[in-house]
Design goal:
The chain is 80% helix and 0% strand. It is mostly helical. Helix 1 packs antiparallel against helix 2. The longest helix has 32 residues, at 3-34.
Length: 136
């Protein structure tokens, strides 16, 4: 595979992730500002919304994969079974325990998610099944 094609794939992933980030930070902001909920209660639903958005768009447009959707979703679920509790507990500790700004903590989690999720999807979820979807 060419470096140009991989570069374009990374650009697409970043752009779709940015759109998911807008959904995540928008819903996180709404929950933070409109409720008295603790950090984790605002973070988790906003993360879930962004996961669904990002998975759907990246499978179809970034990786253009015909990989088995339930299998791919289970692999992504496995990633998030590690990522979510780690960032929720660490984020809650930083925001509630150490008094860090909620938005700074969420932004750091989003950057960590961007980099690790791309690598996981590229080399685990869609390994050997990239650019093989039938064109409509």
């Amino acid at each position: 595979m060419s470096n140009k094609k991989e570069f374009l794939r990374v650009v697409k992933f970043v752009l779709f992730s940015a759109s998911a980030g807008i959904i995540q930070i928008g819903s996180f902001t709404a929950l933070t500002e409109l409720t008295e909920w603790r950090y984790y209660a605002c973070y988790l639903p906003s993360l879930l919304l962004s996961i669904l958005w990002n998975f759907t768009l990246n499978r179809k447009f970034t990786f253009q994969s015909s990989a088995n959707i339930p299998s791919a979703m289970l692999k992504v679920l496995g990633y998030y079974c590690i990522f979510t509790p780690t960032t929720t507990l660490l984020g809650n500790y930083l925001a509630e325990g150490l008094g860090w700004n909620d938005y700074l903590v969420t932004g750091l989690n989003m950057l960590l998610n961007l980099s690790t999720e791309y690598l996981f999807q590229r080399f685990v979820v869609y390994r050997g099944k990239i650019d093989n979807a039938k064109k409509d």
